[in-house]
Amino acid sequence: MSGAGEPERFEIALSEQALGELHERLRRTRWPDQPAGIGWEAGMDIAYLRELCAHWLDSYDPARLEDRLGAFANWRWDGLHFELIPRLVDAGHDLIVPSLPGYAFSDAPPQPLNAAGVAERLLALLDVLGYERYALQGGDWGAVITFQMAHLAPQRIAALHLNAISVLPAPSDLSDPPLSAAEQEFIERGLRWRRRAGHHLLLQSAAPDAVAVAFNDSPAGLAGWLVEKYRAWSDCGGDVERRFSKDDLCDFLTMYWATGTIAPSMRLYWAERLERSRLPAGERVTVPAAVADFPVEIVPRAPREWGERLLADIRRWTEMPRGGHFAAFEEPDLLADDVIEFLAQST
Q: Which of 23, 24, 121, 177 has the highest count of CB atoms within 10 angstroms of its CB?
């Protein structure tokens, strides 16, 4: 940990040792056979994965990742890495984008944190940076964490913008008012998704370290685990490179590999299972809120009445024309425009 003093400028520099090990291990990958015709149906098309890993080894330039991230103002405070990103800055807003504890260039916490614990860390960061009142935006874990921040410190939150509302903890009381037909159908779709495609939730919340050793040791194994999700959760129509180029995918993979953070990133699921960050019965987040619902979200098209069980003051609800779970990467302009318009209305 860097200590809890003032934030310090941080330079994105990937370890030469880590990159050397990456290349050596890619060369020595022991590939399994795959029966003809199975491909993605079993989770990963191994022929495609071999092609991607060959690109990672022979064609991908890690300096591209350093340059892309280094173009932003990077800082660290108390082990937390964060950046200033220009899209909303250009619209007149300061923008703080943190790496969650245990992800990328943020240190792993001494003990795994659940979403509420991460929310408290980020509130402390904003204190140190001198922000007394601010808006929040989140998708995926960011949606769960910013939702918790708004619950913990509503007096400080001017507005809350969420995509991936379906990942929020279910309301504690589903009887008052009774569930609508649309809500019941949404819950059933969520349960079907968990049974058919939510294997990462079961594994990472129950036994993350049982597989983290393999992913931390094998870049091909890491790629197999992560690329399956980039394909399944994005608006790519089954062609992952329609949304993410090979270089894009290698950027994501190299960041996990070079920082050695796949294990602590997976422990967030475990910590959250041990102590779910759920609102007490009868409580809702009260800050002005907006929801952007992307059509290929993992459980898309949550009905507004479901959102109103969690958010007391929904002022904007946008059904996006395209995009999936990785909205900030897939459709950055759609997301940024929605956030900017919401902030103009609410702050």
A: 121
